[in-house]
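Request: Not sure, any thoughts?
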Amino acid sequence: MTLAELEHNLNRAQKFIHTQSGEALNLAFSARDLARGFAQPKLEAKALSICAIATFNFGNNDDTLAYLSELSTLAEQHDIGEYEGKAICLYAQTQYTLGAYHLSRDSWNRCLTLPDSAIDLETRVQAHVGLGQLYYAHEHFQTALAHHRKAEDLAAGSEDYHLQGAILINIAADLIACGQLDEAYAVLKGALPLVRADQSYRNEAEIYMHMGRIQLLRGELELAKMSLMVALKINRLHIHQWSEANTLLTLGECHIAKGDYSHAIEELTTALTTATALGARHLQSSIHLILAQACAAIGEPALAEQHQTAYLNLRQQILAERHETQLETMELNLV
């Protein structure tokens, strides 16, 4: 293979990263060794970055961290340009998924201080998105919204539909948490054309999941169930395990609202198995809380207490990492 063919394959992999992650991973995995053979560290870094993103999309956090470790080693030996920032940002996102919030916070903050030579604008925007998600996990919803609005402003001139769609989805989640359901629904409707133009099935599933949550909160249970089933189908078709578990959580809540506890417990148990396998503590805690309510409703107090205890233990672990001083310092950076 020539150097030009290698670059072509990497560009194809980059194009497929969010729509055909398996194909992207195959192309990038082959390109990694070829780039090394050509002594092209930036192309090797690009291949490793694509491998890391693809495995992250599949929920394979261990593989993602392994590829990022390779990238870190490469960055110590060579100038890899913007891929340094991409690696740090994805490391933060992976640690956030695993509930290691202090590691994600430090890495996203680092992205905001890297020189332009080591990070592109889109990755800086992603760092603001990530910090917003961190605030959301710690129930600082207004500050989360401020970070996501800043990301929206920075990305205004970007042609990256995937990034813009992700920003809007996060803004909608913040608005839902703030009780602004009508505005959140309008944001999601506005994001849908961008996501479909990008062919980002992961983001499309997220939109339907959030629509389902809004409909659930409005008491529109049949509409909520339909939206959530669309999200679930997309997630299972494209192997997005974290989103699948989150969707099952909301679907479980929907069935509880309908008084259908057997289906709710089945969905929540499946969601808990997936969330536990992924190491997603925040998601596990939410599932345990709803399972406690469902078990209490069907007259299983021992099981309800077991889930309530698990919920409280996980919340204690999460809130122990709040680092309020650092969070307040970060808020000052928004001014």
Q: What stands out?
A: The radius of gyration is 20 Å. The first helix runs from residue 3 to 16.
